[in-house]
Amino acid sequence: MDKFKSFLNKNMIVLFLILLCAGFGLANQTFFTYRNLMNLTSQMAINALLSAGLTYVIILGGIDISVGSVAALAGVISCMIGLKFPGMNLFGSIAILILTAVVVGGFCGFLNGIMVTQFNVVPMICTLATMTMLRGLTYIVTGGIAVFGLPSVFSFLGAGRVIKTPGEPMGIIPVVTLFTILVVFLMHILLSKTVFGRHVYACGSNKQVAHLSGINVKRVNLVSYILCSIMAALGGVLVASKLQNGQPAACEGYEMFAIASTVLGGTSLAGGSGSVGRAMFGVAIIAVINNGMNLMYISSFWQKVVIGTIILLAVILDMAQKHKKN
């Protein structure tokens, strides 16, 4: 009985995901079609990138609610740069998107990290301020108008597909899915298999003990915030690539989905525990709920209610587990 309870506790999120898929599959035959499943993976991609980055920050006991604004800023800047090169080739478009994400995300993450580590600003307040600032800056640089007129190759990373067949002349597998799997896998390896990853867990569990052990706690926090913003910026440029334009209002509210996914995946808001791999189960649950409810023509308003309820339950469960351990 104890082993069974332990199994349920460790795999509750996986079982919940299986039950959700089974329920929506029975309710709508379209759910398990190959085309819908491929669409589902591409819908998961942006949230997966944001959640992978947020996992590091939340394990440290912090939070970053500016990721949606970082994504929007990176998206419009990548489009503005893309307009300067109307004759760009495929390699050039991918280089612009990735380099823009690294530079813009790196700068925004550095700003957040410095505020938290050097000026001891509470992470929630710090990232709330940068969320507002960066969203305002996005509207300023665009004049509140979408950046459009980009060449077709610009959309390959966000909307392209590979492995063409007679039945699927546009391609079977979304490029954004393959790109996301690669990046998330690298983030998972960095957290679970490297010295830096062990330092993240140590700092999240007990900063004082980590410091006495010789770990540079401030540097670990700074690098984690930079990684978080780079992942958000990657999500933003993928959205811009998919739409083939830069929307100043893009990714608004995405931070809530990313935080919900990360917490659902078992990352404790108190810090010290969690993983990128398990956060992806949370991402899958959010995507399945949205996709399944859309297939059943349920109002988007009710979708918000359901997602909000799940976030609340996840936080309550997290707090209950923390209390039980204490």
Structure overview:
The structure is a single chain. The chain is mainly alpha-helical. Helices cover 74% and strands 1% of the residues. The protein has 13 helices and 2 strands, in the order H-H-H-H-H-H-E-E-H-H-H-H-H-H-H. The chain has helices at residues 2-27, 34-59, 67-83, 90-117, 123-142, 156-159, 175-193, 195-205, 207-212, 217-243, 254-264, 276-295, 300-325, and strands spanning 161-162, 173-174. Strands 1-2 form a two-stranded antiparallel sheet. Helix 3 runs antiparallel to helix 4 and helix 4 (90-117) packs antiparallel against helix 5. It starts with a helix and ends with a helix.
Question: What's the topology here?
Answer:
Blueprint: H1 2-27, H2 34-59, H3 67-83, H4 90-117, H5 123-142, H6 156-159, E1 161-162, E2 173-174, H7 175-193, H8 195-205, H9 207-212, H10 217-243, H11 254-264, H12 276-295, H13 300-325
Antiparallel strand pairs: 1-2
Helix pairs in contact: 1-12, 2-7, 2-10, 2-11, 2-12, 3-4, 3-5, 3-10, 4-5, 4-10, 7-8, 8-10, 11-12, 11-13, 12-13
Q: What descriptors fit this protein?
A:
mainly alpha, globular, 326 residues, 13 helices, single chain
Helix content: over 70%
**Average pLDDT, to the nearest integer?**
93
User: In total, how many beta strands?
Assistant: 2
Report the total helices: 13
Uncertain segments of ≥5 residues (pLDDT<50)? none
Task: Tell me what portion of residues adopts beta-strand conformation.
Answer: under 5%
Give the topology string: H per helix, E per strand: HHHHHHEEHHHHHHH
Radius of gyration, whole Å: 20 Å
Lateral strand order in the biggest sheet: 1-2
In terms of structural class, how would the helical and strand content be classed? mainly alpha
Shape label: globular
Largest sheet: 2 strands, antiparallel
What is the distance, rounded to the nearest whole angstrom, between the alpha carbons of the first and last residues? 23 Å
